[in-house]
Amino acid sequence: KAGVTQTPRYLIKTRGQQVTLSCSPISGHRSVSWYQQTPGQGLQFLFEYFSETQRNKGNFPGRFSGRQFSNSRSEMNVSTLELGDSALYLCASSLDSTYEQYFGPGTRLTVT
Amino acid sequence: ILNVEQSPQSLHVQEGDSTNFTCSFPSSNFYALHWYRWETAKSPEALFVMTLNGDEKKKGRISATLNTKEGYSYLYIKGSQPEDSATYLCLRTYKYIFGTGTRLKVLA
Fold it and tell me: pLDDT tens digits, residue range A73-100?
């Protein structure tokens, strides 16, 4: 069974630009969650999608948005990038929130 | 408790020692508690998902217990090995809040 994949793995962007990150969950998993990891803040929850609907949202500004497609693949978009958005972005998939989450390798975003 | 707290923050033990850490969380609005093991340069690996008060789960030398009424979960490692060295994280799925983690170093 293929694991969770994320693309791209590394990305360098300039302040003010926007970026789209992609996450392909394990086959059969309908829940996809996104997390941001920064050295100072640890792992923070961005949002969770289940069957194409955003079910939970963390405390991030509206510049962070996401969506989920009918095949459960999910994208996360960050507009008007700021230096503080530099982080490792992880996605995780599961059957549902009371099941184990499987994490992808992450996308390392650097904003200059 | 308003947040998810883990203690201790870091821990050094000798190979063969048994150890345990704590995850404390608000006892209201409980859905599930996840435990993860996170090694440097790797992705978090799921250990347990605990949903019911009194739950006890075990995977090899690692086990966990859950008390939803008082808002805590313990993770135990029996006979620690150097490969157990990692950061252990708990996640409360109500509002998806991670604890700050316990960094374990097992000395050979």
Answer: 999 999 999 999 999 999 999 998 889 9
pLDDT digits (tens, 9 = 90+) for A18-30: 999 999 999 999 9
A39 pLDDT band, cuts 50/70/90, is: confident
pLDDT single digits (tens) A3-20: 999 999 999 999 999 999
CA distance to partner chain A, nearest, from residue B103 (Å): 13
Kindly state whether A65 is in contact with chain B, defined as any CB-CB distance less than 8 angstroms: no
Distance CA B89, CA B38 (A): 7
- Strand ranges in A1-112 using DSSP code E only, listed in sequence order: 5-7, 10-13, 19-24, 31-38, 42-50, 53-57, 64-68, 74-78, 87-94, 102-103, 107-111
Q: What is the pLDDT of residues A40-78, one digit of tens each?
A: 778 999 999 999 999 999 999 999 999 999 999 999 999
Contacts of A56 in chain B (CB under 8 A): 95-96
Q: Which residues of A are less than 8 Å from B44 in CB distance?
A: 43, 90, 92, 103
A101 touches chain B (CB under 8 A): yes
Q: How far A82 CA lies from chain B's nearest CA (Å)?
A: 24
Inform me whether the C-beta atom of residue B44 falls under 8 Å from chain A C-beta atoms: yes
User: Are residues B91 and B97 in contact, defined by beta-carbon separation less than 8 angstroms?
Assistant: yes
